[in-house]
Amino acid sequence: MVKHQPLQVYERQLCLSCLTGIYGCRWKRYQRSHDDTTKWERLWFLVLCSTFFLILFWLYFWWEVHNDYNEFNWFLYNRTGYWSDWSIPILVTTAAGFSYVAFLLILALCHTAVGQQMNLHWLHKFAVTVVLVVTVISMISMEQLWGEEWDILLLSFQATGPFLHLGAVAAITLLAWLVAGQFARAEKSCFQAVLLLTYLTVLTALYLVPLSITSPCLMEKNNLGPKPAIIGHQGAPMLAPENTLMSFQEAIEQKASGLYADVKISHDGVPFLMHDNTLRRTTDVEKLFPERVGQDSSMFNWTDLQALNAGQWFLKDDPFWTASSLSEADWALAGNQSVCTLSEVLQLAKNSSKSILFNVRRPPPEHPHRESWINVTLHTVLQSGIQQQHVSHCDAQ
């Protein structure tokens, strides 16, 4: 007599197949396991978590220093001689790396939630390692080349602290179900105690954090300090070409408390405004004087400087992504800007009763006014008739 065994019917588990397939390339049922995750894979989970928090910190840093992207681009321009908006590729690659690592971390947590053994595929391990190494190298490079920008982080927490705290509380609350599941499945009471104690410690710390947050978002209006003074460095370079008369006029219209200009001395003794050592980035010197592109701007006579266009580059390169927002009249005005003299901006500051700060650059050794550059600048200031108390500070380099 033949006994017939009933056929086993397996339910399709599409979500589980995708979960284990994407994370560890285990698409078949027999490749999965409910055994405990190995110590090696637990180590990789810690690496994944560390990479996530590190690249999250790096992404937050780059988002918060957006006001200084132009300074960073100028910093690299001085070293490469090529102008480009380097902030875009950095932001894109950082966001892509963060999204990838965050996706893998979510898959790992889902493995834990459904009791599946974690087994990260070697391709993912390689990619996570690359993201980790690149992020670490980027942060070390930033410390060496642009270390002062780290101070912005502490300052930014005064504005973002309350919102970051709410996000952290929401995240740790969402993890409660996962912690509860692990607690229920754990066979060792010691592990249960450590897990519960760790979670409660983190949760308690998060709920006590607001006691240490000092933010205008949480303060009474009467307790707020005085509004900080806004200084138009190079005018309003987001709205007009930097160090041009239009730029300083825009700064005044935006209620800036003062103006900040970079001053250089022409070969024939005329103080003018220019940030870079050369004229390549902010003028059309390549068109008018192609043989003098790399020459210091102080070695040009004022007649030659006056012939240059100092506005077309702003419309072409669009360093702050704001050129498209200009009106038709402002677009035409920006495109016709010329190199501005110190006398012109002093007269503008005088008429508007604004203070003005200088960053005076010393000419190169072969310059005829190498030794008298300070006197030339002071003479121009005195000739303008501006009140001395409005010239509050003068940097000399």
Tag the structure with descriptive keywords.
15 helices; 7% strand; 5 strands; 53% helix; alpha/beta; 397 residues; single chain; five-stranded mixed sheet; elongated
Please provide a written account of the structure.
Strands 1, 2, 3, 4 and 5 form a five-stranded mixed sheet that branches. Strand 4 (355-360), helix 15 and strand 5 (391-396) form a beta-alpha-beta unit. It is elongated, with a radius of gyration of 30 Å. The model has no long low-confidence stretch (mean pLDDT 86). It contains 15 helices and five strands. It is an alpha/beta fold.
In the predicted model, the low-confidence regions spanning at least 5 consecutive residues are none
Mean pLDDT: 86
Task: Determine the fraction of residues in helical runs and give it as a percent range.
Answer: 40-55%
**Helix run count:** 15
Taking the sheet with the most strands, its summary is: 5 strands, mixed
Q: How far is the N terminus from the C terminus? A: 105 Å
What's the total number of strands? 5
Form type: elongated
- What proportion of the residues form beta strands (DSSP E)? 5-15%
- Our Rg estimate from Cα atoms comes to 30 Å
Fold blueprint:
Elements: H1 14-24, H2 39-64, H3 69-80, H4 87-114, H5 122-146, H6 151-174, H7 176-185, H8 189-208, E1 231-233, H9 245-253, E2 258-265, E3 271-273, H10 285-288, H11 302-306, H12 312-317, H13 328-335, H14 342-352, E4 355-360, H15 373-384, E5 391-396
Parallel strand pairs: 1-2, 2-4, 4-5
Antiparallel strand pairs: 2-3
Q: How would you summarize what this structure contains?
A:
This protein has 15 helices and five strands.
